[in-house]
Write a structure and sequence with these properties.
Layout (H helix, E strand, L loop, with lengths): L16 E5 L9 H15 L3 E5 L6 E4 L2 E7 L3 H11 L3 E4 L4 H13 L4 E4 L3 H9 L4 H12 L4 E3 L2 H9 L5 E3 L24 E5 L9 H4 L6 E5 L5 H7 L4 E2 L5 H9 L3 E4 L8 H8 L4 E3 L5 H4 L5 E3 L3 H8 L4 H8 L4 H10 L9
Parallel strand pairs: 1-2, 1-5, 5-6, 6-7, 7-8, 9-10, 9-12, 10-11, 12-13, 13-14
Antiparallel strand pairs: 3-4
Length: 350
């Protein structure tokens, strides 16, 4: 069905019934889930009614090579019933998985406008896991997002790349950090390990390029907080590295604050919430000069260098107070407000 492009919601202060559809949802632990969940909570605090539909409401199957991530199986009929029961006034599709495609088809059939967001560089992930050239995946992603009324991207670098790759109506939408949950003290998480402590937090998976960190010749200790399909193999291959598993809440804040430097070896992330979390705990960042770090890390808060060892050693000298101060400029309230302003309302009576 043909539909007209909708106007953004803008500065409207009336209560909004917002539907967010995401293939990434609890119990998964990743940046997409944290972003969607936190923005939804922020909007609810301000009076909006937000419904998030994720795979937890459907029959699912494990993602090949990543069994802890489960994907909705043939979701369209049940999704249509859930959408009808909620009665949204705006729709945002957060991911390009089976639920995202099903909601896209439903919106197109009904002539509903919707917005999307670009969280994950799937073409690069697919190439890292399978060796397949990324051009076919980029073509699929362009087709997916072209049907919407705006695609939200987290950084200026990502906005520019998507535009250059033929995506239309790309809109900036940054991220935030919970400054109450992530703080600079106490710093006792790794008191039992030789200092200095270099920390990685995130999935233990090939697309995160974690071995670039594990291979570094560094003084002191290397710590990995997280889990994933490569953990067992990497624990065997790098017995001197301390693998601590997933942490959350106060334990995660202490993990960041107790480190002398946070090392971010990924070259494919579109933002990297962990960068802000580390800086919120006063911990400087070492990373490659790629999308994500180069949009988030500023002088004094870390070092970006293609020589990751040198970046790590130099970053340890950064002022922890400067790191915290920079993180304070990224609030979830502002992130949620920017998200809401760019949503597109459904036609009256839809």
């Amino acid at each position: 069905m043909h539909r007209q492009r909708g106007a953004v919601i803008g500065g409207s202060t009336s209560r909004l019934r917002l539907l967010i559809v995401s293939d990434a949802w609890t119990p998964q632990v990743n940046g997409v889930v944290r972003t969607v969940a936190t923005v939804a909570d922020e909007l609810r605090v301000n009076g909006d009614v937000v419904e998030v539909i994720g795979p937890d409401r459907f029959r699912t199957f494990p993602l090949p090579s990543y069994p802890e991530i489960r994907i909705a199986l043939a979701p369209r009929r049940r999704l249509a019933a859930l959408v009808k029961a909620f009665g949204p006034e705006a729709v945002h599709i957060a991911t390009e998985g089976p639920l995202g495609w099903a909601m896209r088809a439903l919106c197109r059939h009904r002539g509903w406008p919707f917005t999307t967001s670009f969280h994950t560089r799937f073409p690069d992930y697919l190439q890292a896991r399978t060796g397949l050239p990324p051009r076919f995946a980029w073509a699929m992603l362009r087709r997916f997002h072209a049907a919407g009324d705006g695609v939200f991207a987290a950084t200026p670098s990502l906005c520019q790349e998507l535009t250059e790759r033929g995506f239309s109506d790309v809109r900036p939408w940054s991220r935030g950090v919970d400054l109450g949950a992530f703080h600079t003290v106490p710093r006792d998480a790794w008191d039992h390990l030789p200092k200095p402590v270099a920390l990685y937090v995130g999935r233990v998976a090939v697309e995160k390029n974690i071995e670039a960190f594990l291979k570094l010749d560094l003084p002191g200790s290397k710590v990995v907080v997280g889990d994933g399909p490569l953990r067992a193999e990497l624990e065997r291959r790098y017995p001197s590295v301390h693998f601590a598993g997933w942490r959350s809440g106060e334990a995660l804040s202490r993990a960041y604050a107790g480190a002398d430097v946070f090392v971010f070896p990924s070259q494919t992330d579109t933002f990297g919430l962990v960068l802000l979390e580390a800086m919120g705990c006063g911990t400087p960042v070492a990373a490659y000069p790629v999308m994500g770090p180069r949009d988030v890390v500023v002088p004094g808060t870390g070092v970006l260098d293609w020589d990751l060892r040198q970046a790590t050693l130099r970053a340890m000298a950064c002022d922890r107070a400067v790191c915290r101060k920079h993180a304070e400029g990224f609030g979830w309230a502002d992130c949620a407000a920017a998200f809401r302003r760019q949503l597109v309302p459904l036609p009256a009576g839809a």
